[in-house]
Structure formats: structure tokens, C-alpha cells
Design goal:
By secondary structure, this protein is of the alpha+beta class. The protein has 2 helices and 6 strands. The chain has a 4-stranded antiparallel sheet. It has a two-stranded antiparallel sheet with strand order 4-5. Strand 4 and strand 5 form a beta hairpin. The chain is elongated, with a radius of gyration of 16 Å. The relative contact order is 0.25. The mean pLDDT is 93.
Length: 96
């Protein structure tokens, strides 16, 4: 089972990477911290110091159509913030 879905490349995640050497990933909802840690160490060849996980609720979306107002939600997902050892980094584009 693949636990890492994709890296999160937002301005907030980039600032966190530059400031404190932490990288953000969207992960499988059922993955735990040990599975995420082993997947990152195996895929990128780095030493992981800590992992923080959170479940992000989906945003409420609405739009006007011919039939009236349509509302719904974007899906929720699990996010992992990975802290690496000093001097190590992850290059997202080398493993494509």
C-alpha cells in the first residue's frame, strides 16, 4: 500500500520548509506515523526526526446554477508534516 499521495506545495508549506526544515505531504487516511516515516525514509533516503499528522476537513463549496444554489464539500484528507535532521533536504522533483 502506498502511504504517500503527493507533496503539498503551498506558500505556507514552503515557508515552513525554509524556516524549520519541515516538509508537508498529503498521505493515505489510514496511515499511521510509523508507516509514513518508513515510506519517506525509503523513498527519499533521509532521516526523519518527527512527524505531525492532522486530518483537514473539506471546505464548503457553493455555486449558482440554472436549478438554483448547489452546495457541497470538498473531500477531507490527512496531512503529515515531516521534520528532517539538520542538513538534510527532500528534492520533490528528483523521484518523478
Amino acid at each position: 500500500m502506498e502511504f504517500l499521495k503527493k507533496p503539498i506545495l503551498t506558500e505556507k508549506a514552503s515557508a515552513l520548509t525554509e524556516k524549520s526544515n519541515r516538509f508537508t505531504f498529503k498521505v493515505e487516511h489510514k496511515a499511521n506515523k510509523l508507516q509514513i516515516k518508513s515510506a519517506i525514509e525509503k523513498m527519499y533516503g533521509v532521516n526523519v526526526l518527527a512527524i505531525n499528522t492532522m486530518v483537514v476537513d473539506g471546505k464548503v463549496k457553493s455555486r449558482n446554477t440554472k436549478g438554483g444554489l448547489v452546495t457541497g464539500r470538498s473531500p477531507k484528507y490527512k496531512k503529515a508534516i515531516v521534520t528532517l535532521a539538520a542538513g538534510e533536504t527532500i528534492d520533490y522533483y528528483s523521484n518523478i
